[in-house]
Amino acid sequence: MIEMSEVSKIYPNGVSAINGITVKINKGEFVYVVGPSGAGKSTFIKMMYREEKPTTGSITVNGIQLSKLRNTKVPLFRRNLGVVFQDFKLLPTLTVFENVAFAMEVVEEHPKDIKKRVMEVLDLVGLKHKARMVPTELSGGEQQRVSIARSIVNSPQVVIADEPTGNLDPETSWEIMNILEEINNRGTTIVMATHNRDIVNNLKRRVIAIDNGRIVRDEQRGEYGYEY
Ligand SMILES: Nc1ncnc2c1ncn2[C@@H]1O[C@H](COP(=O)(O)OP(=O)(O)O)[C@@H](O)[C@H]1O
Ligand SMILES: [Mg+2]
């Protein structure tokens, strides 16, 4: 599903963010990526959806070797991936419905299919009744639920989330986790970078710990394991 072999990333400014990572994430797994700030978590996951390219090494996602992926094919590749960010990244002038529909319109789905599917995913995240609102009318947790709906609307095989609960209070964070768990239970692979010790230690899943651009720990049903 996701495979990295001897992957390193040196940014143009000379910062060495990832130093020789080899890892395999299988279909249906739920993986937390933990580690101190600046450890390389975001770089690690950005390379999975080709936001960044590795300097050396190879990456295969959903059977596609990313080094061989032409730029023109990137949108098609991303259709099989959902991405969720800490700061939601919703389009402020669009309604909840439009924000989610947008992800389907760019892949030229039929309007009737779009309406049906968008309402389906909004129902899954509990926001069908707020479809006509705009992001500023929603709480942070609700905005994150919209962004999760957007990430799954094209039924991707993998959802990649970079600190999705980073801006949310503990109770709201748990609501978000329940939704991600439900999505994972339906078969979608989830890779989630997080600083949330409480979630990692309670909702036991595979933990990949990164420090200084290296994997320092990789455990099934792992613990958060840091003092920060
Ligand atoms: N676009 C970039 N250009 C240069 N250096 C970067 C860039 N993005 C991240 N870095 C550096 O790479 C290292 C890893 O960053 P990052 O992957 O964001 O870590 P984390 O998500 O674990 O906090 C840090 O030293 C950071 O400053
Ligand atoms: Mg980060």
UniProtKB/TrEMBL annotation:
SMART domains, per the entry: AAA
Annotated GO biological process: cell division
Primary location recorded for the protein, binned into one broad class: membrane
ABC transporter domain span: 2-228
A Pfam match: ABC_tran
Sequence intervals crossing the membrane: none
Known partners and oligomeric status: Homodimer. Forms a membrane-associated complex with FtsX.
Listed NCBIfam families: FtsE
UniProt family annotation: Belongs to the ABC transporter superfamily.
Protein name per the record: Cell division ATP-binding protein FtsE
Organism: Peribacillus deserti
Encoding gene, per UniProt annotation: ftsE
